[in-house]
Design a protein that fits this description.
single chain, about 250 residues, alpha/beta, Rossmann fold, 5-stranded parallel beta sheet, 3-stranded antiparallel beta sheet, 7 helices
Length: about 250
């Protein structure tokens, strides 16, 4: 998925360029802010598009090598629509046999969870249960959620991930992931530090539209990597056949 094809007004519609209060501006974000409007920092659209394009290319490459990942959010203000988008993404990724772990904590990160994988999974399942009480899920979403809960109750947890997508930068989470040698990708708003994650998505981290766009990007990237894998397979077969015909 090439974000060059995405027009700027798409991101403006998603309010991706709207930062936090200008008084809370992090010093590492100074160069990426184009100005202020009603005491709110406005993110430069050029840098915004650049960061999304960079992450799009990263996802394509990671999915091509079947990297395991998980998504975690520690923003309790995200509404229940988040769970539906998350489950839809999990359903789509399962079509391509991609190992993944989509989770949600819903509060500040509790240090040590990455070193206690079973406990982390229980945290995720607990948050899922709470969200599902008020979220109107489809039959497929309910079936997937119940399957995840049943597997968790039997002590079956996902494989340890290769990279983490943080929907909101939590310094404790990022430091713990780095200590565990997990590649980190983070949504960085105007009040967050660019020095936190390994790869940054400069964008409004309070916008549900931005989160849904991120999930859609994961879907598209997985589809692209699946097609690239098939292309590479056929190219390899063609080369072998050409070699056999030449020798014959």
């Amino acid at each position: 998925m090439s974000l060059h094809k995405i027009k700027l007004n798409k991101f403006l519609y998603l309010r991706a360029h709207i930062g936090h209060n200008s008084k809370s501006l992090d010093k590492t974000m100074n160069s990426f802010i184009i100005g202020n409007y009603q005491n709110t920092s406005i993110i430069n659209s050029d840098y915004l598009l650049w960061s999304w394009e960079r992450i799009s290319q990263l996802f394509n490459n990671l999915f091509l090598v079947k990297a395991k990942f998980f998504v975690l959010g520690t923003n309790p203000n995200i509404p229940n629509l988040w769970l539906r988008s998350l489950l839809d993404t999990q359903l789509n990724l399962s079509k391509y046999s991609l190992p993944s772990f989509l989770g949600y904590i819903g509060s500040n990160w509790s240090g040590g969870l990455l070193s206690n994988w079973n406990k982390l999974w229980l945290f995720v399942l607990t948050s899922f249960k709470k969200l599902s009480k008020n979220a109107k899920l489809s039959k497929k979403q309910e079936k997937l959620l119940q399957k995840m809960i049943d597997r968790g109750n039997r002590g079956i947890t996902p494989a340890f991930p290769d990279f983490l997508i943080a929907l909101s930068i939590d310094n404790t989470l990022i430091k713990e992931a780095s200590f565990s040698r997990i590649l980190t990708v983070g949504l960085v708003d105007s009040n967050k530090s660019l020095d936190s994650a390994d790869f940054n998505i400069i964008s409004n981290d309070d916008s549900l539209g931005v989160l849904e766009f991120l999930f859609n990007l994961l879907d598209k990237s997985s589809l692209n990597s699946n097609r690239r894998e098939q292309d590479l397979f056929y190219i390899l077969i063609f080369k072998k056949l050409k070699k056999l015909l030449a020798n014959g």
